[in-house]
Amino acid sequence: MLKRWLLVFTILWVGSFVPAELMAQENANRVTAKVESELSLGVVVMCEGIKDYAPVNRAIVFSLEIGKVYCFSSFDHVPQETVIYHNWYRNDRLITTKRLALQRPQWSTFSSIQLREADKGPWRLVIKDKTKKVLRIVKFSITE
Amino acid sequence: MSMLASFFTNIRWQDILDILVVSYFLFRLYVLFRGTHVFRVIVGIGFLWIFQRIAGYMGLIVTTWAMQGVIAFAAIIIIIVFRNEIRNVLQVKNVGAILWGVSHKMVETPVQIITGSVYEMAKRRIGALLVFPGKDVLEDIVQGGVPWKGVLSKEMVLSVFWPDNPVHDGAAIIQGDQIVEVGAILPLSRKSDLPSSYGTRHRAALGLAEKTDALIILVSEESGKVVGMKGDQVREINNNIELEKILLANTGTSGDYKGLRKRDKLNLVLAAMAIVLFVAGTWFSFSRGLETLATLEVPIEYMNRDPNMELIASSLNSVNLDLSGGGTLLKSIQPEQVKVRVDLSKAVVGLNSYTITSENITLPPGIALRRVDPPVLDVTLDIPIVKALPLQVDWVGNLDEDLILEAVELKPDRIKVVGGSKILEKISTMYTEKVALDNLKISGTMLVKVALTPASLKVSGDSKDRLSISYVIRKRVPAGD
Hints:
The complex is a heterodimer.
Chain A: H1 2-36, E1 40-51, E2 54-58, E3 61-63, E4 68-77, E5 82-90, E6 93-102, E7 107-114, E8 121-129, E9 134-143
Parallel strand pairs in A: 3-9
Antiparallel strand pairs in A: 1-2, 1-4, 4-7, 5-6, 5-8, 8-9
Chain B: H1 2-10, H2 13-33, H3 37-58, H4 61-81, H5 83-92, H6 95-99, H7 111-124, E1 128-132, E2 146-151, H8 154-160, E3 171-175, E4 178-184, H9 200-211, E5 215-219, E6 226-230, E7 233-237, H10 240-251, H11 257-287, E8 291-303, E9 310-314, E10 318-326, H12 327-331, E11 339-343, E12 350-355, E13 361-362, E14 368-373, E15 376-382, E16 384-396, E17 403-411, E18 414-420, H13 421-426, E19 430-436, E20 444-451, E21 458-459, E22 466-475
Parallel strand pairs in B: 1-3, 8-11, 16-19
Antiparallel strand pairs in B: 1-5, 2-4, 3-4, 5-6, 6-7, 8-10, 9-15, 10-14, 11-13, 12-15, 16-18, 17-22, 18-21, 19-20, 20-22
Helix pairs in contact in B: 2-11, 3-4, 7-8, 7-10
């Protein structure tokens, strides 16, 4: 008798979770469908170097002494081969644009600039897709 | 001629007032001190001053210096030597008399007083001897006189010759309106053909008349007759009218007192005109005599700006004006008298260029504009807008080598800025004032201000100009590619 009751309770308890799981799955499918058609930018960091395909010494202020500054950007989802742009601005002036290729399904890439004395000041890096849509802006500074 | 025309067209009301005030001051000095020794000395100093100015213009350095010294010394001497005379002039008269009263002084011998006195003495048979000096100096000829220097009056004359007076036998010397000396002993005539009726008094009178050009009036004690003697002329004077004529003839004036008063007025008018001309000439020599060049830096003022627009930038804050004019005028220029104004009524949004000409410049009369440097002014006008902009920290300095500033968070991370649309159009980020890294060792928070560059930008009223920075510092790991 007790065993029968336990079986019924277990069936009811498990059964109560089934619609929620089904709904979550449905939503996830919808989001995935949308995301799958779009480029998805994950991590973007400014760093002092790249080692083993990973950023080293992530920072927002860099000394001229280190010689180079890197921008590492990682894309979680690349629906198709495409390009992105790393636009480097000092104050509000565009200094350089780096065109970077992306491969599907996931891709990490980086660009860098060589530092000179005249580069001191506030900078920002704007990442744009091939349609020039701004994907992310990162701010950093170069100091003496 | 053109100089004269320029003088009248450029003269300011201040200049006219200047000339009138000084002229009136000098005229008052003339009115108060005319006929006195002080006045003569002042006139002398005036000539010295003119001489000094001429010497100055001619570049005679030592002469100018010496004249300055003499004038300064003479001014002190006047005050010391003539202090009594000055005091008399200033004390006797009330303030009104000093400032605007005109006393028509009797500068000639008061003939009527003398005439009245003489005939009074003749009537009373009082012997008298009155001497009216001419150009000859009497000091060496007349002896034993008692200095008197009393103002002439009928009573004084009678008292001098009153029989009990110790000096009644001597002569009274009269100059102007003063009895200068009494009891003077005159040299006796050595003529032997004199009438028997002539006594010592007659002989003395004749003696002086023979030796000098003085007029001597004698009243005989015995006969009461009045006799006038001058040179070798001896004339009995029978009535006061005749005596008056003789006295007036001796002083070189007529007996017409109305005419004298008219002449006195005329003298005053002429003196006033001469003074005005002198002062105007002096003023002209000071202000226009030598043309001087000067450069003034004058700030630019803007007028008639469209209230919807803002002056964002201008290439100049001030201009240098090369001016010419009299040295004194240039030195006396006040900053508010020189203006450089630019009319912005036709200005448009963006860059506007203006050439600054004499039409933009206000100068005091008598000053001419030679050059404007620089002549071109660029003005940028804009319509102010409000724009929300992201903020970024402007770091300077260095952290310790083993530290890294890994992250920063600004609160707020955006700010509303008011400024010209053309300027804000080009700005996409606002920066904080410079934040030094050198002293940062560990993570923390600080408050900073926004750097408003260009200075025409302002933080909108609903934004804070103080921002909170939260920063994260961590240890560095060796970097590599």
